[in-house]
């Protein structure tokens, strides 16, 4: 366990812990290791009551950002938050990926928090692909995503997002 972070629920361990060039997913949380300080720092930034509503998490390609979000941060957030995870789908574009993950949550954010009894946190992965692998369907992918995020966070009562 990582000191100061919620415990992970017990999962069945895979036959081999190595994902090679694949990213670690939520179900790989028990075998994801070596990033404890990064997980704790990111968790504390997201969980801080004084923190910014949007936490930007970035780094060079291939350093394990997706693994840290999916197998490190997300399972720990699930202990105290209702966490929604969206990984950019290049065929849809970033804004549509976010809409798909949120469903009607963007209009019912506070209702969902009350129903769950926990704050809602949205984790959007692969945002940098807007620049590195642009969606061929539209040149306005980034402006559309930013408009969507602005609309969602227009209400100051809304909580947290990690991108």
Description:
With 163 residues, this protein is of the alpha/beta class. It has one domain. The protein has 6 helices and 4 strands. The protein has helices at residues 36-47, 65-77, 94-102, 109-116, 129-132, 141-152, and strands spanning 54-55, 82-87, 120-125, 160-162. The protein has a 4-stranded parallel sheet, with helices on both faces. Helix 3 (94-102) runs parallel beside helix 6 (141-152). The longest helix has 13 residues, at 65-77. It is globular and about 40 Å long. The model has no long low-confidence stretch (mean pLDDT 82).
Number of strands: 4
> What's the SSE pattern?
HEHEHHEHHE
Overall average residue pLDDT: 82
Q: Structurally, how many domains make up the residues?
A: 1
Largest sheet at a glance? 4 strands, parallel
Distance N to C terminus:
25 Å
Q: How large, in whole angstroms, is the Cα Rg?
A: 16 Å
Q: Beta-strand percentage?
A: 5-15%
How many DSSP helices?
A: 6
Derived from helix and strand composition plus strand pairing, the structural class reads: alpha/beta
Query: Strands across the major sheet, in which order?
Result: 1-4-3-2
Dominant shape? globular
């Amino acid at each position: 366990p990582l000191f100061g972070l919620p415990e992970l629920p017990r999962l069945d361990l895979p036959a081999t812990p190595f994902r090679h060039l694949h990213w670690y997913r939520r179900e790989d949380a028990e075998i994801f290791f070596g990033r404890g300080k990064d997980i704790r720092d990111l968790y504390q930034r997201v969980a801080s009551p004084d923190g910014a509503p949007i936490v930007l998490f970035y780094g060079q390609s291939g350093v394990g950002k997706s693994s840290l979000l999916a197998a490190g941060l997300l399972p720990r957030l699930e202990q105290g938050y209702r966490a929604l995870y969206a990984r950019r789908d290049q065929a849809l574009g970033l804004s549509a990926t976010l809409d798909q993950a949120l469903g009607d949550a963007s209009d019912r954010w506070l209702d969902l928090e009350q129903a769950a009894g926990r704050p809602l946190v949205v984790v959007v992965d692969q945002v940098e692909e807007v620049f590195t692998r642009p969606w061929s369907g539209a040149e306005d992918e980034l402006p559309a995503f930013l408009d969507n995020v602005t609309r969602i966070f227009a209400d100051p009562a809304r909580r947290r997002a990690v991108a």
